[in-house]
């Protein structure tokens, strides 16, 4: 399939303009869509997925900005999991939190220096638990995503993660799955699941 950027971008701007009417002006929506395209297009290994990924990224950024600026109310707690590459630990934590919370929280993940693709062994370890990452991809850390979060969990990114007052911060010492065999990644997955379960028990009624 041939992807025509101008057509895709124009349609996304129109769709998001309808979805966020009265929340953001057309210029802000257009800037967000173009930024999403510039982020996704160079990383896309399957070009047919570009429109879906750009739409998802743009929606996430607009919603995070709307929440951070108080333009829309939060219906559930917002969790943000951050590691360096957003290719292993933070992706696992976000997927497990969404899986275990029955949608009683909204989950995002990001990386302080995101890499090109998710660790395939991480994908395998999650699939063993019936969790698929689908078309998930490493995403950069943005101020709007940080400001929208109620709980920010960092894993190995240290001082590269900005601090915002009024947020709950946790720093989890979790092993990096990069370059590890499936047996080790399973142990990391189970460690993260135990931590996620404990966090959800604390923040959910």
Description:
With 205 residues, this protein is an alpha/beta fold. It has a 4-stranded parallel beta sheet. Strand 1 (78-83), helix 4 (89-101) and strand 2 (106-111) form a beta-alpha-beta unit. Helices cover 48% and strands 10% of the residues. It has 2 domains: 1-73, Corynebacterium glutamicum thioredoxin-dependent arsenate reductase, N-terminal domain (Helicase, Ruva Protein, domain 3, Orthogonal Bundle), CATH 1.10.8; 76-205, Response regulator (Rossmann fold). Helix 2 packs across helix 3 (50-68). The chain contains 7 helices and 4 strands. The protein is globular.
Can I get a quick summary?
The protein is an alpha/beta fold and 205 residues long. The protein is 48% helix and 10% strand. Helix 4 links the parallel strand 1 and strand 2.
Keywords:
four-stranded parallel β-sheet, 2 domains, alpha/beta, Rossmann fold, Helicase, Ruva Protein, domain 3, globular
Q: What is the name of the CATH class of the largest domain?
A: Alpha Beta
- Structural category is alpha/beta
Give me the strand/helix succession. Answer: HHHEHEHHEEH
Low-confidence spans: none
Cα distance, first to last residue?
47 Å
Biggest sheet: strands side by side, in what order? 2-1-3-4
Radius of gyration: 17 Å
Question: Which band does the percent of strand residues land in?
Answer: 5-15%
If you average the pLDDT, what whole number results?
91
Overall number of structural domains: 2
Silhouette = globular
């Amino acid at each position: 399939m041939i992807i025509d950027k101008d057509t895709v971008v124009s349609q996304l701007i129109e769709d998001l303009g309808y979805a966020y009417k009265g929340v953001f002006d057309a210029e802000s929506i257009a800037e967000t869509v173009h930024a999403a395209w510039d982020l996704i297009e160079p990383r896309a290994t399957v070009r047919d997925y570009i429109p879906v990924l750009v739409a998802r990224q743009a929606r996430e950024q607009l919603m995070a900005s709307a929440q951070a600026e108080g333009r829309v109310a939060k219906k559930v707690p917002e969790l943000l999991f951050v590691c360096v590459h957003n290719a292993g630990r933070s992706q696992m934590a976000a997927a497990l939190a969404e899986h275990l919370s029955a949608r009683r929280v909204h989950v995002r993940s990001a990386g302080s220096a995101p890499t090109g693709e998710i660790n395939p062994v991480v994908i395998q370890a999650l699939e063993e638990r019936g969790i698929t990452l689908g078309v998930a991809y490493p995403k950069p850390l943005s101020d709007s995503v940080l400001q929208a979060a109620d709980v920010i969990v960092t894993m190995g990114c240290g001082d590269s993660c900005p601090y915002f007052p009024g947020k709950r911060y946790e720093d989890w010492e979790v092993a990096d799955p990069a370059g590890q065999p499936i047996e080790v990644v399973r142990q990391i997955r189970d460690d993260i699941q135990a931590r996620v379960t404990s966090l959800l028990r604390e923040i959910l009624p």
